[in-house]
Amino acid sequence: MADESKKEPETKNSKDEVALELMKFIAVTTGYGKGASGAGFGGKAGKTAEEYAESLLELFDRCRKAVNQ
To answer: Hey, which of 34, 35, 38, 64 would disulfide with 47, CB 3.0 to 4.6 Å?
Structure first.
């Protein structure tokens, strides 16, 4: 019975953790935010570190909204 009292209701932190795991899954499986490779003539240059970080933060925000619905 002592274990039951230690259980906490679902909190904002646990929802953020779910959103973070979702974001990582999407980013790893799709290459989200990395941009096109710069191989060959006229190829697009890859995103800068700041642009990549910004796109990941945007994805995390979208995941948080999806988890909180």
So the answer is: 35
Q: Residue 53's CB: how many other CB atoms inside 10 A? A: 12
19 Cβ neighbours under 8 A, 6+ residues apart: 60, 63, 64, 66, 67
Please tell me the pTM assigned to this model.
0.67
Say whether pLDDT at 18 is over 60.
Answer: yes
Span 29-40, average pLDDT: 72
- DSSP class of residue 40 equals S
d(CA 62, CA 52): 15
Residue ranges of domains in the chain: 11-68
